Structures are given as C-alpha cells and as structure tokens.
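Revision sheet: structure tokens.
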Amino acid sequence: IALALLVLHSYIHQDRDRGIYIIVQFLLMNSSTPILNLRWWLRTYHPQRKMLCLSSDIAFIMAFYMARVWLVGWILRGYGKPHGYNSAWKVYLEGMRLPCQLGTGALWLANTSWWTLLVMSVIKRLPQELDRIKKTTGYSRG
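Predicted:
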C-alpha cells in the first residue's frame, strides 16, 4: 500500500494525471475510521459510560458526514475547477465518464444511506440514553 501511495504521489507531483489526485483525496474518506473504532471500543468495553458513548455517537455522525458524504462534493468541485466547472453537480453530470459517474454515484449513495441509518439509530436511542445518563448522574430539571 505504501508503495502504491508513493507512486500515486509521484504522479501528482509531476502533474501527470489529475485523476490520480482524486484517488488520493478519496483516501481521506478513511479519516472517520478512528472515531468509528473509538465508538466501537467504548460500546464494547465501557457501555456503562453512557455520556462518553453518546458523545462518540455524535462525533462519529459528524466525522462520517464530513469524510464520506460532504467530501465527495468537495473533491468533485476541486476536480472541476481547472476544467471550468463551477459546481460538483456539473462535474458529475458533464465532466466524468459514465463508469466514473456510476462508481462515484454508488459510493455517495451508499455512504449517504449509511449515514442516514446511523443518524436515525442514534435519534431512536437518544431518549433512552439521556434517561440513563440522568439516572446515573442524579440530574433532574425539577
């Protein structure tokens, strides 16, 4: 993997192919993985630490969205700017070959769907989690 990244970086440095730059940017999608791992570790080994688990849920929701949903638009805008496109949507529709459109669209749709399911799951659990946190901390509004 390191060798492949080095080769990709050398292509970028030589300005041989803009598409290689896009591939490397897509690797940024993995930046949400450490928070996913932290979330798993907390839920697996410290489920009694409700506030920490809830905080990791919220952090993961935000990181996942930025790294796997929003990032696709940012990458497309960055790719399109030197080619005269002013929006990610225009790049997607007019500036990409069909296989790239299908792959990028499938990736974005899958990540957006997973993110939506994640948000729905956390929202569904939120009242129960907050009740447990109130009971363990002795917090009450009255």
